[in-house]
């Protein structure tokens, strides 16, 4: 099934929209709290379609993602019982929060860096950091470094690869899309056990 190639073409059209930086900023903010769509889905095509603005886009993604992380932290810190916990229960994420707590106990602040840089659901760790009353300044600094590294790496790869990378990406987009789905399901199964 070639659904990812059609989706890719649509995302490339959206990435050139005049309001794309606003959409990227909003997506970056809410993805750090609850939104399931990764920032990279918008950032990569935006950097590819306008390479001269790639660093600006990476900066927007970083700043708004860390602002969203701060908001997620505050939700976990101040509104766990009345707001977050019922939402977590409704979504069936109790197991993920338990895993996040365990990882915090085992790795401390490093878990924020790992979650901010890798595809692990960062939102779970932003809220859990607040719930566990992690020191806010180290949380923000580590988030800034991890998110910045990730988003500048994505933008840099798009600038570096340019048209050649896009041609290869288009050729293999459906295979890569299905591999990402499989990886996401595997990560979910691992985190939920």
TrEMBL record:
Membrane-spanning segments: 20-43, 55-80, 107-125, 137-163, 169-191
- Residues forming the VTT domain are 53-157
Answer whether the UniProt record assigns the keyword Transport to this protein: no
Pfam families of this UniProt entry?
VTT_dom
Superkingdom of origin organism: Bacteria
Alphabetized, the UniProt keywords read:
Membrane, Transmembrane, Transmembrane helix
Indicate yes or no for the key word Transmembrane helix: yes
Report the InterPro entries cross-referenced here.
Answer: DedA_domain, VTT_dom
Q: PANTHER family from the xrefs?
A: ALKALINE PHOSPHATASE LIKE PROTEIN, DEDA FAMILY PROTEIN
Q: What is this protein's record name? A: VTT domain-containing protein
Give the source species: Oceanisphaera marina
């Amino acid at each position: 099934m070639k659904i990812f190639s059609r989706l890719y073409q649509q995302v490339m059209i959206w990435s050139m929209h005049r309001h794309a930086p606003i959409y990227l900023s909003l997506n970056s903010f809410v993805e750090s709290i609850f939104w399931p769509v990764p920032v990279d889905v918008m950032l990569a095509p935006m950097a590819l379609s306008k390479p001269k603005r790639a660093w600006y886009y990476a900066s927007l993604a970083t700043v708004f993602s860390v602002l969203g992380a701060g908001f997620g932290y505050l939700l976990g810190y101040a509104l766990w019982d009345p707001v977050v916990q019922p939402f977590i229960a409704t979504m069936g994420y109790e197991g993920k929060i338990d895993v996040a707590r365990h990882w915090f106990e085992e790795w401390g602040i490093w878990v924020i860096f790992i979650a901010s840089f890798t595809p692990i659901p960062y939102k779970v760790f932003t809220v859990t950091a607040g719930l566990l009353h992690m020191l806010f300044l180290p949380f923000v600094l580590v988030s800034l470094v991890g998110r910045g590294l990730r988003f500048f790496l994505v933008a840099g790869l798009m600038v570096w690869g340019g048209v050649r990378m896009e041609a290869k990406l288009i050729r293999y987009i459906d295979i890569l899309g299905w591999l990402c789905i499989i990886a996401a399901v595997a990560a979910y199964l691992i985190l939920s056990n």
